[in-house]
Every structure is written in structure tokens, then in C-alpha cells.
Fold this sequence. Notes:
6-stranded mixed beta sheet; 6 strands
Amino acid sequence: MRIYLVRHGETMWNREGRNQGGLDSPLTRAGVEQAQRVGRALRDYIGDPASCHMAVSPLGRCRQTAALICEETGFDYGNCRFDAALREVTWGDWDGLTAAEIETQFPGALTALRANKWDYVPPDGESYAMAHARIADWLAALSDRKPLIVVSHGGVGRILRGAYAGLDPQELMVLEQPQDAFYLLEDGEIAKIDAGD
Length: 197
């Protein structure tokens, strides 16, 4: 199966340095332009949009990004499949907070997170290990052979690429999370495709 993996465009909270997790904020103007450029680049790869499926995180920033990609590619937004398995790793009580706010409200918690980012579970949140199990199950369950456009998040994009490539946690956690490119996953290989200008 061929997978085109896209991260949502820049949001207001990305710009402000806030953890989004299970919460949401709208795309910035730059984020809208990123999504449009990714859509144009995807159009050159997918050809006939009816030849693909699209799976999208149900969070608003991904829905907005997917709608912009649909406008550029001609894919019918009504045919998008909104899949809760693709939602971002949630920081629980930390969702919506900056690092400074987390440190003020939860003294020492960020130090504990940095010591074991893979297994650390924020209050009422989810560890990367927990999210990895969710994404690995989702990936293993894919059966349709049509190319699939996936619109998701930075953390989930790292996890999905890591699960696909069989990376260990240390390798996975340092993968980049671009908003102006997409990844092509095919035949066990992963290629980064820059969206250009």
C-alpha cells in the first residue's frame, strides 16, 4: 500500500508554543498556505483523486487542512474518513498549556517527562508508548490496496513513520515534524517530499 502522510498546517497554538494534544486551534495564514502547497504537491503524485482514499484525524486543524488539500487535489471532502485512531497524542491536563505554564502548575513534571518521554504519562494524558500501540494497530489493520492520504499530527506522524519503519523509541522520538512537506510510505521505504513554494 502507498501512504501519503501529511501533518496539519501551522496553528495559532503552534505559533504560541502551546501543547495542543486533544484540544484545537485554527490554522494561521501560514498554515493555510502550507496546506495549499502540500495539496498542490500531492496533486502531482496522486493523479486521479478518485484513485485514493483519505483518512483524517477528527480534530479541527486536520479537518481544515484536509479541506484545503481537497480543494487543491480535487478529492471529494465528503469521502474523507475521519478516524479517531489518528488523533494527536493527548497531554491530558497539559493540553492547551505552554511549557512555562506546565512548570508552574506541575512543578518538576517536565523534568520527569524529559527523563523518559516514551513512557511518561501526563496527568489524564497518554504516553508515546500508548499512542504507538494505537497507531501500530491502525497500521496493521489497513487492507485496502488503494493509495491512502493520511492527514494527522506531528506526534502521530512520528509514531506512524516509526511503526512503519520498525524504529526503536529513541530513533522515533527525534524524527522531524514538518508542516510544509509530506511523506511517501511505500514498499518499506519512507521519502520526504517538500511542498515547494
